[in-house]
Structure formats: structure tokens, C-alpha cells
Write a structure and sequence with these properties.
Helix 6 crosses helix 8 (207-219). Helices cover 40% and strands 22% of the residues. By secondary structure, it is of the alpha/beta class. The strands form 3 sheets. It has a 5-stranded parallel β-sheet, sandwiched between helices. Strands 6-7-8-9 form a 4-stranded antiparallel β-sheet, with helices on one face. Strand 6 and strand 7 (151-154) form a beta hairpin.
Length: 237
């Protein structure tokens, strides 16, 4: 297994239709270790959400066209694990309830206190890292590439290469592959995998089996082995 020396930066997507707010927030948030892209409307937001694959989204509620509530619902349908923080000048209880019902994780009122927002984003980074990878966070400790057998996993682009052919996996399948590949020949228990990837989310006990089958079929590989009654391991060949 080969891992290079540059650290992966957590990705943040900033969505607001006011250019001044985007500029101020981008400038300040870039001071903490984040890769940031911004969007000014719903079309850009959803397009970049799928291509950029952010870990965190800061999403304004009141925008022209589709408002943040609708955008949040669509983002949640695409990715249930991304942390979505919504903000708005309208901070009444009704607005907050609609935001949480749409799937947001946190809410901040406008005008935004930059110092508080920065501290909050740092706290979210830590929480996501500890929840998904409690002993060795992919977001900060894993580096850009893992090479195993004929497989190259690019952590920067979320791409997988098998014999030079590029594949894209859904985020959960990608995370599962990384967990197995970064410790080859080690048996990972089902319980540990569930805890690292899904945390407190309730999923079917067959979820891991389904994901492993899809990874094998998509990549046409047979190096992921089932250990009966225990879990899975990825073997070197």
C-alpha cells in the first residue's frame, strides 16, 4: 500500500445569492483547512454538490428561484451524510422548523458573526472526523492516494482506478473501500464498519453485504473477502 504525503482537506460548499456575503465568508473560512467552492443559485448549488462532493454545506434559505429549503431537500436525497448548515435573516421558529424538516443539521441567523461561524465549522469538522473515522480520520489523516494490487484510490477526487480505468463510487461505497484498503489483510468487523460509516443511522443488517457486492461488481475485483460471522477484509494479491 502506498500513501503520498499531502493531507486531504475537508470540502465545503457555500451557497448564497449575495456576492458580498460569499466573498467575505470564503475569505474567512479559507483560513481554516478547507477546500471551498461557492454557488449563487440552485442550479449551481446542486451541480457543484454532485461534482464537488462536499463534506459540509453552508446554505442560505432566502434566494431567488428555488429557496434553500428546497435545495436542502434535494441535497439530502442525493447524500444523507453531508453536514448541512442553513442560515437566514429570517430566524423565526417557523423558518427554523422548516429548515430542520428539510434535513439541515444546524441553523445560524444573519447577520453572521464570522468568529462564531468559524468556531462552529471547526467543531463540525472535528465531529465529522470522529464520527466517521474515530481512530484514523480519512478527512485529516489519510493522504491523497492508496495503491493496493491493481487498484488506486484517489482520496482527492473520490475516484477509483482499476488497471488504469477510472470508476466513481457512491460516497458510502467509497468510504467502505477506503476502510478496507488502508489496512489490507485485516479483518474489519461488521459492527466497526457500521459505526465508522453510518454512526447512529439505522440501516438494514444486510447493508454492508449489498455495498460490498456492488463494489465487487462495479470494479470487477475479487480481493474483498467475507469472513463468515465476523466481517470483511481486503487481501493483497
Amino acid at each position: 500500500m502506498v500513501i503520498n504525503d499531502q493531507f486531504y482537506k475537508m470540502k465545503l460548499l457555500l451557497v448564497d445569492d449575495e456576492e458580498d456575503i460569499r466573498t467575505i465568508l470564503e475569505y474567512n473560512l479559507s483560513k481554516i483547512k478547507l477546500k471551498i467552492q461557492s454557488a449563487k443559485n440552485s442550479y449551481e448549488a446542486l451541480s457543484k454538490f454532485e461534482s464537488f462532493k462536499p463534506d459540509i454545506v453552508i446554505l442560505d434559505i432566502m434566494m431567488a428561484g428555488s429557496d434553500g429549503i428546497e435545495i436542502c431537500k434535494q441535497m439530502r436525497a442525493i447524500n444523507s451524510s453531508c453536514f448541512i448548515l442553513m442560515f437566514s435573516a429570517s430566524a423565526d421558529d417557523y423558518t427554523k422548523i422548516k429548515a430542520y424538516e428539510a434535513g439541515c443539521d444546524d441553523f445560524v441567523s444573519k447577520p453572521v458573526n464570522i468568529q462564531i461561524l468559524t468556531k462552529k465549522i471547526k467543531a463540525i469538522q472535528t465531529r465529522l472526523e470522529n464520527k466517521a473515522y474515530p481512530t484514523s480520520s480519512i478527512t485529516t489523516l489519510l493522504k491523497e492516494k492508496i495503491e493496493l494490487n491493481n487498484i488506486v484510490i484517489d482520496l482527492e477526487s473520490y475516484s477509483v482506478y482499476v488497471d488504469g480505468t477510472e470508476f466513481e463510487l457512491p460516497k458510502k461505497q467509497f468510504e467502505l473501500l477506503v476502510i478496507l484498503a488502508k489496512n489490507p489483510n485485516k479483518v474489519h468487523t461488521r459492527e466497526k464498519i457500521y459505526d465508522q460509516i453510518w454512526g447512529d443511522t439505522i440501516v438494514s443488517e444486510r447493508t454492508i453485504d449489498v455495498h460490498v457486492t456492488r463494489i465487487r461488481n462495479k470494479l470487477n475485483i475479487n480481493c474483498i473477502k467475507s469472513v463468515k460471522g465476523v466481517g470483511y477484509k481486503m487481501i493483497t494479491e
